[in-house]
Every structure is written in structure tokens, then in C-alpha cells.
């Protein structure tokens, strides 16, 4: 990130755009994510994970499904290598997400190192938010804008995990359950709302249907198989039956 | 060599670093390097996005169908019902995420209070 105080005068400085990005913390997706992390803190505590480990996990991984998979493996006493495989399979989705975000984020002079640093803060929520909002930002300030909301979002949720874990004895089980339910419903609706073409919607339907089937057959590889089989099928179905009246892509 | 394998303070952190941080950020870094090359209009790109989407959808289904913690004690039909009703409300309400999430939550809580 540039820390230079000067920028293009008419567009404002990088610092200003960082602050403008930060302002996006007050938004529905950010609030839902915070609720989900309240649920996560309760889940971690219920699962017997130490406070410091739960906080460290949130900062180091910053991907809710991966964190849930990791805790499940810890609880089951799974060894390091199978745990790595399970977590890495649940995180594969981040690769295409980052891949699609990079062309939107970078300006001519953006260093790869900056992008690598910022990529750590890409998760479903920040990705959906970036897709919605980054287009309005002048290109040379997009990394500052993204850093503004994504890094703040991560930091805030790390604090939430620490605070909620410490005080969660007072949270009724029903509230905790409801909070944990927010995440899948938010993913479901936001993914559908930001789907750019019908291939994505077909892929969603197939993934929803195939996921539980593969889970029953092979719980270790369910996500990867549902993704590969469902996504590839959706790709070919979408090519075979192109959507009417809709332009492809953006 | 699991999480509880060594009784030293740093082992759980190392475990989380290897099986959590490295297992996750390796994909983010790969994504950055690929994103500098891949064209957004190419067919490979469409395929990669479809696979990513189906994967996240499978995550959603797993959280609803096979949850852990408190949610595991609720009825499967209630969770699926709440998700479906929430999604239909989201579609009818002009694809507003708040409507979908609010409705699903209301159905779930009502069901939990009725003991499902």
C-alpha cells in the first residue's frame, strides 16, 4: 500500500479512500458477518477451543467454513495431514474468487506484493462487497479502498470473537443457533444476487443438491467433488442451453 | 500428530498455522498469481467460477443439512424449511438479502420455540 500523502488532487489521497472504504463497515453484509462471528465464538467455546486459539484462527485463516472444518477436525482428534487436506479443500473456492477480483483491484502500478497481502482479507463477504462497490472507486485508489473495508472488517471480527468468547456464557443456546444459521442463508442469497450469469445459478443449484450426497458418500472430499462435478456440469449445461436475452459476462 | 499431540503452548498455534493459515492462503496467493494472467472473458475463467460457486453452494448445504453445535439439535425439516422459505421470500422481495435472511431466521426461531 502506498503511504504517500500525495495523490491525484481531484480524486483525493489514498488515505481518504482508505477511510471511505472503512465506512462500508456500517452495512448489512458486514453486520451479518459480525453476527456469524458471534456464532463462531460460541461454537469455538462449545467445542472446547481456547480463547487465544480461536482468536488466532480467525486472524490467520479468515474464512469461516475453513475455521469450522478445522475445529471439527480438532474435536475429532484428526492428525495434521488429513486436517490440512480437509481445510485446504474447503478453501479452494478462494482461489477463483481472488482470481476474479484481481483484475478489478489492480491499477497499472500495483505491486504483486500488495495484492498478495490484500488477498488474505478476501473471503465471501469482502468479495461480495468488493464486487458491488469497487467499480465506483478510481482505479489508482482501489487497493486503498479495499484495504479500508476488508482489513477493518477482519480486525473488527477478531475483536468480536475475543469479546463474545469471554462473555458468551450469557448467550442463550437458541440465539447462538440462530446466529450460526445466518451464515448459510447470507451466502445463499448474496451469491444468488451477485451471480452474473445463468451458469453461476445452475452451479449453485447443483452444488446445493450434490453437496449432501457427496458428504454421505465421502465426507472428506464432499466439497471438492460437489464443486468439480457440479461446476463442470453447470458449465456444459450453460453452454448447451445459453440464457435468452442476457448478455454474457459484464 | 494431532492438535493435542504435544503438551507445549506453541503446538496448537503451529497446528493452526500449517493446517489453517497455510492450507487457506496458499489458494489466495495462487489466485493472485493466476488473476494476473487469466482473461476475464475466457472459457476457462467461466469454468473456474462455476466450480467455485458449486463449492460454496456445497458449503451452504453442509451448514444447513449437517450442522454442528446447537443447530444439530434442531429438526432437519425445520432447517431446510427455514432456508427454502427464506430464499423464496428473498426472490419475491426483489432479491433483497435482508428480506431473505430475516425471514429464514424468523421461521427457524419460531420452529425452535415450538420445539422442533
Tags for this entry?
heterodimer, A: 250 residues, mainly alpha, 2 domains, 12 helices, 72% helix, globular, disordered C terminus, B: 116 residues, 4 helices
Short description:
The complex is a heterodimer of chains A (250) and B (116). Chain A is mostly helical.
Biggest interface and residues each = A-B, 104 and 77 residues
What's the story with the biggest beta sheet of chain B? Answer: none
- Which overall shape of chain B is indicated by the principal axes computed on the Cα atoms? flat
Counted beta strands of chain A: 0
Number of helices of chain A: 12
Task: Please give a structural write-up.
- The complex is a heterodimer of chains A (250) and B (116).
- Chain A has 250 residues and is an all-alpha fold.
- Chain A is 72% helix and 0% strand.
- Chain A folds into two domains: 14-193, no CATH class; 195-250, no CATH class.
- The radius of gyration of chain A is 19 Å and the shape is globular.
- In chain B, 71% of the residues lie in helices and 0% in strands.
- The interface between A and B is large, with 104 and 77 residues.
Amino acid at each position: 500500500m502506498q503511504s504517500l500523502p500525495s495523490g491525484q488532487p481531484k480524486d483525493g489521497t489514498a488515505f481518504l479512500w482508505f477511510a471511505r472504504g472503512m465506512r462500508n463497515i456500517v452495512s448489512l453484509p458486514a453486520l451479518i458477518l459480525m453476527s456469524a462471528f458471534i456464532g463462531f465464538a460460541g461454537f469455538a467455546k462449545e467445542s472446547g477451543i481456547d480463547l487465544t486459539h480461536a482468536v488466532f484462527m480467525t486472524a490467520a485463516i479468515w474464512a469461516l467454513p475453513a475455521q469450522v472444518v478445522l475445529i471439527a477436525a480438532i474435536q475429532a482428534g484428526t492428525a495434521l495431514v488429513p486436517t490440512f487436506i480437509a481445510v485446504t479443500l474447503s478453501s479452494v473456492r478462494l482461489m477463483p474468487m481472488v482470481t476474479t477480483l484481481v483484475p478489478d483491484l489492480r491499477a497499472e502500478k500495483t505491486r504483486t506484493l500488495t495484492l498478495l497481502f490484500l488477498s488474505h482479507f478476501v473471503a465471501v463477504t469482502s468479495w461480495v462487497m468488493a464486487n458491488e462497490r469497487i467499480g465506483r472507486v478510481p482505479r489508482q485508489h482501489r487497493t486503498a479502498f479495499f484495504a479500508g473495508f476488508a482489513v477493518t472488517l477482519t480486525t473488527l471480527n477478531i475483536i468480536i470473537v475475543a469479546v463474545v468468547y469471554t462473555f458468551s456464557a450469557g448467550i442463550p443456546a437458541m440465539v447462538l443457533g440462530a446466529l450460526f444459521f445466518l451464515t448459510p442463508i447470507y451466502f445463499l442469497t448474496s451469491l444468488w444476487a451477485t451471480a452474473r450469469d445463468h451458469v453461476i445459478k445452475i452451479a449453485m443449484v447443483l452444488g446445493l443438491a450434490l453437496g449432501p450426497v457427496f458428504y454421505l458418500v465421502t465426507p472428506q472430499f464432499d466439497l471438492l467433488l460437489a464443486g468439480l462435478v457440479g461446476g463442470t456440469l453447470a458449465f456444459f449445461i450453460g453452454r448447451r442451453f445459453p440464457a435468452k436475452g442476457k448478455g454474457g459476462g459484464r | 500428530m494431532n492438535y493435542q499431540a504435544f503438551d507445549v503452548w506453541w503446538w496448537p498455534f503451529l497446528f493452526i498455522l500449517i493446517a489453517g493459515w497455510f492450507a487457506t492462503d496458499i489458494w489466495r496467493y495462487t489466485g493472485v498469481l493466476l488473476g494476473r494472467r487469466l482473461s476475464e472473458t475466457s472459457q476457462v475463467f467461466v469454468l473456474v467460477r462455476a466450480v467455485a460457486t458449486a463449492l460454496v453452494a456445497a458449503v451452504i448445504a453442509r451448514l444447513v443439512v449437517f450442522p454442528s453445535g446447537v443447530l444439530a439439535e434442531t429438526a432437519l425439516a425445520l432447517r431446510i424449511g427455514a432456508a427454502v422459505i427464506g430464499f423464496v421470500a428473498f426472490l419475491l422481495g426483489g432479491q433483497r438479502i435482508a428480506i431473505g435472511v430475516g425471514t429464514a431466521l424468523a421461521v427457524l426461531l419460531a420452529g425452535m420455540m415450538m420445539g422442533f
